[in-house]
């Protein structure tokens, strides 16, 4: 795994590989992730003959995935309420017939989960656009959409500007809204090294997470064996949930105040030469009262000034962030504020400085680069049309929330998912399941059985595919695929394991099969593409900027980096400059009695896949139906540790949603803030509550009320998720 030249890329997180020749580049969660795929268990036709779908819907999500790897294509038989085997060619015909039977291509929607390879991604979007729609929702719509939008507006490209080598020389790292020890464990190596060099490391998080003080770094085998911890922080700041924008603006205010007496506090030359909108931004910051900034951030002024002092003395600053900043109404504005702050001191486009979003899925960034975008730009479509000889549709398509709404209303009748677990990952679980059930056909390309297979359309297919760790042999021999990490490095990945069943096909082969069945007269050489993925890459090299000479460059050790113009201070914005943004401060302080809920992952889960009910670093065992609360908020409600509570969320449209019988767990969180686990708490996130600017569901921005449980240890606590939904 993660070898310089050969082997497969860890399908865990998107953190880049170490460039210093570290060959054993692994972490505990990476191992969990890979072994999950490598299980010896199989879920075969005899299993499906024994269990109806209605019965399986009563199983826990853990039990469903725990059955093992899928082994052959399956089709839903409504007579017997069972999945039964179907041949690949009949499955493809079913997909093609359903899609060709639609009144318009926009009646279908095509979801992507972020581990799909670049090659499969390219074939996917080519098929969908040749078919005639941009309905390409993806997990990014729930993840880093806000980052992409904000960075594009500010810097002209939606990606980070840093390399891992920049992390090696930065003297201030501000790490915001990420639980690094669990979700990007390989970042800990960089943090520990930075700490040793004397760099400042500031963690900004309402919860004090494992890595925000000291932690066991996964690469340090001796330390791991002896449980010795390593310092990974020099300061922790605990804003209230949603308070980051106010905090960042406070830091900017302190910097601008200093600049009045000490011009070197800001980089005037850089601002003059490369940026636009500085005066308006300075005015906005000046007009903002300290008291309001402190109130909204939930951080005392002296702490904000302390952070500003560190920023003022640092020569090279990187700001990194993940979901804690994006899944909110003002997610885009917060990311813009990060850019504002960096621009003030010219921390962009030079070594050791810049923006560094921490991506989620191992290839979610590559998916966007290779064309998964419901709002594609004209440039991409024009080149696609020219090189591939198709006529791409120009109208924008549906994102994740838009797709759910359209399925509910019957406007989308066919739903295809390349990986993922849409039913559980999306907001408003009951509504999403109802939406999927309202379709004529659902097609899930998957490795394991999950909830999304049980929330099916009138007709349904499960198409089992190879995992990234498995050998992919096509007509011209063994094939590798490519992925792009969080820092724009593209590299090859070759599976090495024997596939769990001879019936499995690669994602590229499945896509080509569905495409040919949908577009029998297509001039696209679908079959030739699958024989040799170099052919896909040759086409990609012509269509995608930065992929020139793709086949040669990707075979270099460690692959290649896609050029990121903003890194070279080339800003592809309307003004040709980096744009300051001066968004108004959102009000994130709730009236008394209401609490702000943020949903997140435990240490022992991978999005919707739960490995165990433990959350080691937060001191939790055998419990997922919990709510982390500030002890004073608990006392105010007469709650003792582990008391049962009911949680009700208040949507903007006035509707409410509740879960019952969760356990209150005291935790070091600001007053008025609570947090608990996705995907269980997705039932509380109303479909209509998404950010206007990014379309992202407000998964870390839920207004709730918490009361002692009325019905005792109740429904949500004990019954499997599926049962709760069926009520
Ligand atoms: N092992 C493992 N690795 C993963 C994943 C996994 O599930 N398991 N998922 C992958 C994916 S797809 C993604 S997108 C990433 C997700 O990585 P993270 O962003 O770390 O994911 P979450 O668990 O949602 O944690 C969000 C963090 O943000 C904090 N937070 C919540 N609200 C706020 C806020 O208002 N401000 C600030 N500053 N912080 C806040 C929470 O306390 C928590 O520490 O991880 C990826 N890697
Ligand atoms: N409330 C709340 N909801 C959230 C979030 C949150 O923080 N809070 N986070 C959001 C985020 S950041 C994301 S990225 C989404 C995640 O949303 P998804 O990407 O849709 O969900 P995953 O749980 O990652 O998908 C797991 C499934 O992928 C399939 N799979 C695994 N490996 C492969 C493979 O190699 N190929 C194929 N074809 N399938 C495979 C398996 O069948 C497995 O069951 O969830 C979002 N939902
Ligand atoms: Mo994600």
UniProtKB/TrEMBL annotation:
Every Molybdopterin dinucleotide-binding domain range: 595-649
Pfam families: Molybdopterin (PF00384), Molydop_binding (PF01568)
Protein's UniProt keywords contain Metal-binding: yes
Keywords per UniProt: 4Fe-4S, Iron, Iron-sulfur, Metal-binding, Molybdenum, Oxidoreductase
Residues annotated as domain Molybdopterin oxidoreductase: 69-445
Cofactor(s) listed: Mo-bis(molybdopterin guanine dinucleotide); [4Fe-4S] cluster
PANTHER family the record matches: PROTEIN YDEP (PTHR43105:SF4), RESPIRATORY NITRATE REDUCTASE (PTHR43105)
Family statement drawn from the similarity comment of this UniProt entry: Belongs to the prokaryotic molybdopterin-containing oxidoreductase family.
Stated name of the protein: FdhF/YdeP family oxidoreductase
Organism name: Amycolatopsis tucumanensis
């Amino acid at each position: 795994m993660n070898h310089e030249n050969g082997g497969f890329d860890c399908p865990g997180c998107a953190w880049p590989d170490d460039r210093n020749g570290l060959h054993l580049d692994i972490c505990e969660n990476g191992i969990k992730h890979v072994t999950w795929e490598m299980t010896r268990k199989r879920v075969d036709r005899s299993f499906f003959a024994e269990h109806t779908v209605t019965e399986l819907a009563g199983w826990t999500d853990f039990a469903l995935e725990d059955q093992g790897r899928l082994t052959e294509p399956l089709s839903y038989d409504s007579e017997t309420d069972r999945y039964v085997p179907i041949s690949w060619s009949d499955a493809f015909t079913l997909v093609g017939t359903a899609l060709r039977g639609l009144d318009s291509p926009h009646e279908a929607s095509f979801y992507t989960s972020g581990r799909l390879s670049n090659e499969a991604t390219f074939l996917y979007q080519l098929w969908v656009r040749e078919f005639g729609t941009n309905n390409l929702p993806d997990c990014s719509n729930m993840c880093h959409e806000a980052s992409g939008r904000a960075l594009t507006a500010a810097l002209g490209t939606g990606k980070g500007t840093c390399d891992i080598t920049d992390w090696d020389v930065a003297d201030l790292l501000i790490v915001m809204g990420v639980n690094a020890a669990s979700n990007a464990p390989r970042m800990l190596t960089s943090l520990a090294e930075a700490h040793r060099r004397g760099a400042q490391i500031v963690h900004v998080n309402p919860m004090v997470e494992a890595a925000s003080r000291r932690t066991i770094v996964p690469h340090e085998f001796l330390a791991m064996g002896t449980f010795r911890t390593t310092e990974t922080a020099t300061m922790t700041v605990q804003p209230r949930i949603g308070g980051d924008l106010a905090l960042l603006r406070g830091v900017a205010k302190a910097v601008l105040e200093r600049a009045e007496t000490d011009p070197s506090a800001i980089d005037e030359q850089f601002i003059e030469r490369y940026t636009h909108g500085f005066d308006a931004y300075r005015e906005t910051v000046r007009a903002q009262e300290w008291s309001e900034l402190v109130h909204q951030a939930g951080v005392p002024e002296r702490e904000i000034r302390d952070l500003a002092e560190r920023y003022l003395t640092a020569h090279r600053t990187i700001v990194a962030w993940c979901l804690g900043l994006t899944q909110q109404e003002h997610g885009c504005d917060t990311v813009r504020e990060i850019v504002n702050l960096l621009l003030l001191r010219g921390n962009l486009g030079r070594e050791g400085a810049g923006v560094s979003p921490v991506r989620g899925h191992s290839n979610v960034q590559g998916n966007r680069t290779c064309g998964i975008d419901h709002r594609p730009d004209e440039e991409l479509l024009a080149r696609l049309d020219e090189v591939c000889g198709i006529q791409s549709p120009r109208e924008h398509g549906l994102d994740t929330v838009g797709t759910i709404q359209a399925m509910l209303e019957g406007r989308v009748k066919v739903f295809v998912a390349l990986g993922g677990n849409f039913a559980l990952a999306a907001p408003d679980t009951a509504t999403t399941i109802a939406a999927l059930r309202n379709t004529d056909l659902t097609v899930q390309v998957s490795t394991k059985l999950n909830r999304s297979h049980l929330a099916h359309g009138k007709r349904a297919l499960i198409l089992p595919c190879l995992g990234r760790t498995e050998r992919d042999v096509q007509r011209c021999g063994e094939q590798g695929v490519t992925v792009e990490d969080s820092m724009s490095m593209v590299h090859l990945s070759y599976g090495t394991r024997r596939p769990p069943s001879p019936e499995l096909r690669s994602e590229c082969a499945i896509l080509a099969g569905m495409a040919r069945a949908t577009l029998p007269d297509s001039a696209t050489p679908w079959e030739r593409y699958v024989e040799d993925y170099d052919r896909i890459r040759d086409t990609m090299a012509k269509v995608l900027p930065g992929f020139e000479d793709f086949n040669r460059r990707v075979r270099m050790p460690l692959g290649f980096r896609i050029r990121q113009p903003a890194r070279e201070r080339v800003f592809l914005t309307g003004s040709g400059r980096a744009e300051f943004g001066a968004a108004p401060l959102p009000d994130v302080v709730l009236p008394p009695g209401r609490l702000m809920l943020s949903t997140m992952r435990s240490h022992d889960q991978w999005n919707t896949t739960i490995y165990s009910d433990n959350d080691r670093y937060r001191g939790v065992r055998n419990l997922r139906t919990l709510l982390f609360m500030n002890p004073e908020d608990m006392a105010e409600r007469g709650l003792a540790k582990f008391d049962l509570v009911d949680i009700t969320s208040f949507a903007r449209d006035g509707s409410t949603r509740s879960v019952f019988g969760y356990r209150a767990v005291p935790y070091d969180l600001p007053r008025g803030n609570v947090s608990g686990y996705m995907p269980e708490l997705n039932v509380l996130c109303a479909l209509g509550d998404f950010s206007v600017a990014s379309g992202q569901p407000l998964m870390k921005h839920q207004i709730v009320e918490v009361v002692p449980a009325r019905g005792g240890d109740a429904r949500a606590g004990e019954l499997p998720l599926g049962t709760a939904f069926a009520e």
